[in-house]
Each structure stands twice: as C-alpha cells, then as structure tokens.
Inverse folding.
C-alpha cells in the first residue's frame, strides 16, 4: 500500500459521493449499489487495518496519530446514509438469498446503544494501555514478556521458577487496578444486554444461534470427563521424567526431551514450513509462498518498538490480501504459532475470493479458529516427511504440540465457565470462583501458596476482556480439527478438497461448517478424539 499516512477525509468523501447520489430505480441498480458499497467498506477497512498494523510495527517510535477518531465518525455517518437508502428501497424483496444476512445486519440499529458501546470501548482501551505500560524485569534486566516467557521452557528448575516468579511479582502490582476495570466492563456489558432485552451479557451472547449452546455444553462435558483425566496422566509422567517430587506451576511448559533448538535464521524457518505445506496441498503451499512470502505479507521478527502481538489481518490497496504479524524467536515451537496464523490467512483469502459481498466475507468468530487448528494438526501429522528436520526435532515438536492440546482444551473450558459465572453473578468474588475452576480442570499441579498468582490467568487474558465467550471456540475448534484429521488420515485428498471448499464459503455459521464437512459433533464421535490423543501422549 502507499506510504503510512493518516486517512484523507476529502479522498474518502469523494469515494462515497457516487453512492450517496445514486438513484435506485430497479433491482439491478440496488444489487449493484450493495456490491459497490460492500467493496468500498471493505477497501476502507483494509486501509484502517494497514494503519493499525503500522502503529503496532512502530510502537512508541512516532507520536503521529494515524487513525483519527473524527475520520471514523464521519465514515460512520456516510455509512448510515447509504444503508438508509438501501433499506428504504422497494426492490429489497427481489434480492438473491445470499443478501439476507447483509440486510439483517443493516437492520440492526445500534444508534440507541452507542452510549454503551462507547463506554465498553473506553474501558477496553484503559485495560490495553495498562498492559502496554507493564515492564518485566529478570535479574535486573528488562525483558519483553515473550522472551521472559521463553525461560519457562528451560531445563533448569531454578531458571523456570525465577522467571515465573519474576513475571508474577510484576503482575501482582496491578491486581487491584485490573479487577476494578473488570468489574466496570461487566456492568457495562450487562447494561447493554439489558437494553437488548436480555437478563445479562451471558444470555445475550449465548442466545445467538451461531453460538449453539448444545455444542458448547458437549465440549465442556467431554473435556471434564475425558481430557482432565488424560491431563493428570500426562502430568504424572512429566513429573516422573523431570524427577520432581511435585509439579509446580512453572514446570508444565518444560521440554522433557531436553531439546533446545532454534532455527539459524528466518529463511531456514520458512523453508521448513514451505517443505511441509508443499507435501500437504499445493493450493495451500502456493498461497503461503506466492501470496504471503514472495509478496512480503508478513512481519515475524522481534524488533524494538514492535508490539508483542500475534495476529492475521487483511490489507491491500486494490484487493484484499492477508498479512501475518508476529514476534517469533524461531524456536521449534514457533513452527506451530506460524502455521496457526497461516491457517487464518488461508481462510480469509479463500473466503474473499469466492464471496460476492467482500465486506461480509470474513469468517465468523465461531468458525475462525477451525482452519488454523486443523492446519496445525495436519502439519504435525506430515512433519515426519520433512527432509529438512532431524528426527529428534520432529519428535519434540509433536510431543510439545499434543501436550499443549490438553492445556488448550482445559484452559478454554475453565475460562468459559468463569465467564458464565461473572456475568450472572457480577457481585461475587471472582478469584474465589476461579480457584474452584482451577481445581476442577487441574491435573496434578501443586498450586499451594501460589493461587493468587495463578489467578492472573484471567486478569491477563485478553480474550475474556476483548472478545467475551471466545475462549471456548479454541476448544471446539481443536476438537473439530481432530475429527477432520481423523477423516484426513483415511482419505487425505477428499478431506482437503472438502476442507478448502468449506473455507471458501466464508461467513457461514458453525452448524453449516460442520454440515459442509460431513462432521457429527457428538459424544459418540468425540470418543475417537479421546482415543487418538491418548495414543499420541503414550
């Protein structure tokens, strides 16, 4: 895209003028207007994404504000004018069925809720600014969180303990401030839910048909009855391998294979991923190589003034292209992190190419993690064929990954139950409830006197702050990914073709996703996932 400059409001208004002045005289004109409006919104959205990306890449190195709130407000007004024109058209009833969701979203009038939305956004921003201001130190040296967290994988018990305590001693200082903000945002969200006719924010979110409560409850039940016992067995073996009397909070990430390995440089790291993807599927490989790597649509190096975030966004001056933003140390564990974001990028790209309404092509949150977590599993399953990796590294990656699956599943369910509680009982003591849930989903970790520090899991979880009830999507997606992998093992070509076709549908709900993949998400079918994970952790 062009140089990193603030948006020009004159230029934006000129782009809107043809749509503001258009006369909708027939069905064809209405459809053309909707498509042009969708493309314009999608284009402006990409500009905002690019400016935000540049701010994150150069955090603290410039004082220029690239995203002006006044510009955002003007764009909102222009959008409302065009949407009003579309909704008042007598030709709406003649539109093809795939416009239904678009019209439904336009009919959602948020104007009466602006006060609540703005208040929530303000509190979220306060939380983000608080996190950005935290400085971590270890042995009198400043560390970014990612580098300090890396020490938790050390084979030295003392280093792990010192690093874990260093992180949490800093976090203890922010305990009161964070809890005040959290209570505040819960009240604001419950007020919003009440305005919408719901008892509380939990009821408001989970009443959405795209968040089927049955699917969520099946996941919670399966994890509690099948994965928690598996986690206990894994941790008992880990404790024995590490020759520890008890497993402490700082011991669970340690690499019991004693492998400390980093790729020499970015090029070696990318080549390993490319080799595996080429063996998995040529469409995914060419997307990775041609769109992400060759066009430079990624930034994965750790740099000074760069925000410590991992995410995929959509940019592009003329058409949408995904961009992966990460901070990687090129450890073997980072292979999984990068593959996860490649999964997001491929999903966005597939959906955009096939969906007429570009602005509404982005996958819904309820299915957004499925592509990533499925690609992780297929990548791991094919890693043994990678000629660029030694066998001991392949084994270490696989062992790390499947043990991490246990923690993803249990943590996601723990956070889901926690969120259900705090929005229904906002006056309760949150740490007390979290202590109960930690015990419920624990393996054999001896939390002892460190329960206050362990409670930081929810205080410093951005997901429960910024995207409530999203945490469980990781567990659901992980289980769906396992079911897809089991199909893939039986018929790789057919499963991948079906997978790519489903991703290209874009903005579909999770039930439609499962139907497209011919997957039954039931207790009976999940037994095969339990057996599969058990075999991988033996």
């Amino acid at each position: 895209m062009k140089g990193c400059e603030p948006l020009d409001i004159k230029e934006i208004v000129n782009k809107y003028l043809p749509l503001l002045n258009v006369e909708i005289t027939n069905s064809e004109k209405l459809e053309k207007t909707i498509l042009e409006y969708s493309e314009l919104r999608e284009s402006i959205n990409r500009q905002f994404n690019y400016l935000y990306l540049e701010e994150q890449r150069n955090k603290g190195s410039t004082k220029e504000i690239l995203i002006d709130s006044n510009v955002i407000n003007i764009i909102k007004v222009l959008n409302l004018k065009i949407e009003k024109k579309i909704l008042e058209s007598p030709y709406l009833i003649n539109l093809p069925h795939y416009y239904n969701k678009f019209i439904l979203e336009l009919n959602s009038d948020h104007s009466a809720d602006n006060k609540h939305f703005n208040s929530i956004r303000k509190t979220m921003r306060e939380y983000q600014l608080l996190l950005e201001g935290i400085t971590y130190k270890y042995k009198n040296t400043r560390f970014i969180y990612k580098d300090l967290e890396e020490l938790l994988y050390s084979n030295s018990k003392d280093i792990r303990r010192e690093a874990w305590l260093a992180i949490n001693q800093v976090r203890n200082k922010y305990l009161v401030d964070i809890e005040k903000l959290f209570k505040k945002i819960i009240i604001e969200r419950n007020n919003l839910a009440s305005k919408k006719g719901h008892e509380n924010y939990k009821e408001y979110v989970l009443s959405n048909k795209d968040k089927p409560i049955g699917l969520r409850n099946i996941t919670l039940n399966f994890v509690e009855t099948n994965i928690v016992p598996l986690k206990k067995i894994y941790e008992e073996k880990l404790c024995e391998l590490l020759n520890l009397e008890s497993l402490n909070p700082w011991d669970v990430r340690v690499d019991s294979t004693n492998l400390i390995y980093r790729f020499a440089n970015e090029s070696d790291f990318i080549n390993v991923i490319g080799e595996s993807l080429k063996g998995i599927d040529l469409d995914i490989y060419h997307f990775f190589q041609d769109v992400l790597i060759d066009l430079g649509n990624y930034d994965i190096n750790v740099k000074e003034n760069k925000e410590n975030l991992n995410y995929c966004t959509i940019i592009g001056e003329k058409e949408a292209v995904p961009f992966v933003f990460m901070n990687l140390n090129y450890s073997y564990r980072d292979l999984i992190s990068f593959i996860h974001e490649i999964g997001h990028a491929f999903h966005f790209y597939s959906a955009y190419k096939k969906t007429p309404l570009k602005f509404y092509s982005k996958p819904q949150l309820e299915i957004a993690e499925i592509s990533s977590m499925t690609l992780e599993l297929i990548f791991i399953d094919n890693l043994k064929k990678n000629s660029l990796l030694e066998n001991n590294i392949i084994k270490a990656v696989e062992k790390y990954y499947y043990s991490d699956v246990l923690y993803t599943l249990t943590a996601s369910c723990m956070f889901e139950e926690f969120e259900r509680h705090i929005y229904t009982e906002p006056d309760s003591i949150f740490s007390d409830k979290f202590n109960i849930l930690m015990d419920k989903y624990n393996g054999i970790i001896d939390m002892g006197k460190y329960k206050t520090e362990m409670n930081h899991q929810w205080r410093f979880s951005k997901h429960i702050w910024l995207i409530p009830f999203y945490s469980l999507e990781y567990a659901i997606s992980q289980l769906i990914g396992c079911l897809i992998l089991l199909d893939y093992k039986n018929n790789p070509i057919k499963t991948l073709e079906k997978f790519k076709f489903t991703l290209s549908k874009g903005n579909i709900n999770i039930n439609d996703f499962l139907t497209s993949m011919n997957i039954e998400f039931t207790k009976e079918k999940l037994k095969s996932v339990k057996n599969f994970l058990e075999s991988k952790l033996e």
Notes: The radius of gyration is 24 Å. The first helix runs from residue 9 to 21. The longest strand covers residues 321-328. The chain is about 65% helix and 5% strand.
